[in-house]
Amino acid sequence: MQREAQLLRLLDAVLGSVFATLPVAGTARLASHRQELAVQVQRTAECARELAMPGTEGAARHLAALLDPDDCSGDLQPRIEEQAERLQALAERELEARMMAAAPPAPSGPGMPWSDFVLESREHLANIEAELLRLENTPDDTEAVHALFRSFHTIKGLAAIAGTETAREVAHQTENLLDEVRGGSRAVSSGLIDLALASADFLGEVVAAAEQIDRGEGMEIPENAGMLLDQLHAALNAPARSRPGSGTRAKSGGTPAERRIGASAVKVDTAKLDQLVDLVGELVIAQSLVRLDPALLALDDPGTAKNLNRLGRITTELQKTAMSLRVVPVGQTFRRMARVFRDLARESGKLATLETVGEDAELDRTIVERLADPLMHMVRNAVDHGLENPEDRVKAGKPGEGRIRLSATHESGNVVIEVSDDGRGLDRDRILRKAIERGLVKEQAQLTPAEILDLIFEPGFSTSEQVTSISGRGVGMDVVKREIEKLRGRVEVRSEPGKGTTFLLKVPLTLAIIDALVVKHGENRYILPLFTVREILRPGGQTINTVEGRNEVVLVRDRVVPVLRMETLLGDSVLSLRGGRARTTEESVLVVVESGTRRVALAVDEVLCKQEVVIKSLGDWIGRVRGVAGGAILGDGGVGIILDLDGLMGKEGYGLAA
Amino acid sequence: MEELARTIREDLRGASKYLAFRLGNEEFAVPVGRIREIIPWQDITPVPQAAFYVLGVINLRGKVVPVMDLRLRLGMAGQERDARACIVVMQPDAKRTQSPIGVVVDAVSEVLQIQPSELEDTAALANGWMRQGYVSQIANCKGKVKLLLEIDSVLAGQMDETGALEAPEPAGRGKG
């Protein structure tokens, strides 16, 4: 099964390259392009030979013969294209025959090639969506049609291999539809785009279901297949004439070059990537242990010192590179937003364009994934609440078509994502009124304009006076804020009445590394995320007070802060491992930490240092332990426990809800 | 792959390879396929609020690996460790997809073959461990008795709602 999938991948690559040859200008580039293509075709032939598909193999060899890099005449191109299409047709027929010959795989049998199907299809589906939106914008973009055709074609093949007949049929019919567009007998219409999007959605559901099987859960094939197929058949039979006329357009800042990145990328299992990063981290530690080895230092040999320095430089460089492997461009998420935006604008009857900028800004994979929901919510808000109706816009002297902008920029170790609209802006008076109504602020409160805007992030606040089907489903900006804070980021809002609203999301580049304060208590070291630390102090005897004779509190800048002794957190099991006598609070160092609006003073034995640490999970087996966010490997190879302050200060944590 | 092939061949012949280790006066055996490596005793960083038989975590070549005290897990009394104590890093699942877990044992004894004929019918001596599913069978290898440890149940992390591990039966709780 893997071979078949590989063949499909190769065919996809070959066809992609063949049709991408046209815009390649210059003899030298054409030569190198053909050479590259020849390698792919050779590999296709090999693969076909292994699969015992003589027709495909022959066609591939024939195509390879045409790809003489020395002959750079343009006349060859039509013949190459013709041969490529023949290759595709033959391969398709032979693959299908193979599938028929093989016993039809049971849909839930073990060892199914689902993971291939899931992984590959997912990628193609993402492309499909982007290309469809592009095509809608520029209906005469033949390259987009080619790309779409190939993607549906590949998914069809994958679905056939995986044995999901419905998915294969849907992909097949959509492909036929696109084939007519490709052949020029059908125009791109918004109905066609809708239908193709619906097919992509359906295939996405199948992929999601397939993924569940992969995890050993049952599979539920989505049910709307029949209707979708009917629509596809109807569309195929209908005379092909309609024009693009929809009110929404998504504009992408991406260049064709960006879309070609896939050609030189390698797919790697994330587990392998994580292991690589782990090992490089160890290498850094081992390297620093060697460099600081007293025996080596005693040598005092310039040659050794030079070599050690070199080792150090290389290791640091290697670590940087390894860390960079975890990052992905934010563009993928932006493209998902383009889709959401399109559907929303449709549904709400507003005219709008979406502009995306800075799609190549790179972020940790996890952050990119977790940004999707908050972003979607904000795009939704922008369309639903931010933009006015076309009539109102014209009345206000603005163009009828609204503009929403998604942008990403790097800013000193952070990425700033901006969601802005040119709509009506936030109504401060209404926000304040609502906040008073909901009891979020007192009536006579004196708030600055910025403070009023910040009220929309309060839990239980929603400005929409009428709940629509699009937003107003009970998820408010407070959820967005919480999600972003979980990513150790911040949200800000700016708004000018009548001109629009801008949300700024500031998130770190990676979740894997944090700036931390390392403290020591007893024999062990604990790690506090630096951004939660407000103050470090040694208490004088008079500042510690007790409540009810047991709970200690300390006065920090006139604020009462409860003291949390590490012993309380650690529990008996850890205490028993600790030799010597426990220090009194007066002898300890107090680290004042903040989470949300709550503050707590942690009483620890010593504060060691401030450093960057790589966060590691303690593993599923230990599970989620309250108050512990993970572990980190420290400079000497030992492990420090990263404390989770939310868990520590949570209501059920230690009764510290101060 | 080669190791796997060998194990399969041996399985076909009926014999399997086991790692035997000592815990107090008992000898246990675990299929070698589940053993990742054996590392000497080292400092373990305790994890606050973890289950009582979780000793803590160690750094295993850049991975944070949890370590379990098998004595406590099996409800045996805790004991001073001597130089022979070591950490056996085991695979909690046969498919090797989960992260490994370190298990502290008193001493590693040997790697041995156990033939199916050497496995005893144990229904008559079903003790607590067998009832809890921690020991599946008993092997009588040339007069020496080995308890076949059921890794799946010993290393199973039963999560309750809070995500903390459920402690095994409190009876016979050891002291660490």
What key phrases describe this protein's structure?
heterodimer, A: 658 residues, alpha+beta, six-stranded mixed β-sheet, 19 strands, globular, disordered C terminus, B: 176 residues, mainly beta, five-stranded mixed β-sheet, 11 strands
Fold and architecture overview:
The complex is a heterodimer of chains A (658) and B (176). Chain A has 658 residues and is an alpha+beta fold. Chain A is built from 23 helices and 19 strands. Chain A is 50% helix and 19% strand. In chain A, helix 5 packs antiparallel against helix 6 (142-162), helix 6 (142-162) packs antiparallel against helix 7 and helix 11 runs antiparallel to helix 13. Chain A is globular, with a radius of gyration of 30 Å. Helix content of chain B is 14%, strand content 38%. Chain B is built from four helices and eleven strands. Chain B has a six-stranded mixed sheet with strand order 8-1-2-11-10-9. Chain B has a five-stranded mixed sheet with strand order 3-6-7-5-4. In chain B, strand 10 and strand 11 form a beta hairpin. Chain B is globular and about 45 Å long. Chain B starts with a helix and ends in a 22-residue tail after the last helix. Residues 158-176 of chain B have low confidence and may be disordered. Classes of the chains: A alpha+beta (658), B mainly beta (176). At the A-B interface, helix 11, strand 18 and strand 19 of A face strand 4 and strand 5 of B.
What can be said about this structure in brief?
The complex is a heterodimer of chains A (658) and B (176). Chain A is α+β, with helices and mostly antiparallel strands. In chain A, 50% of the residues lie in helices and 19% in strands.
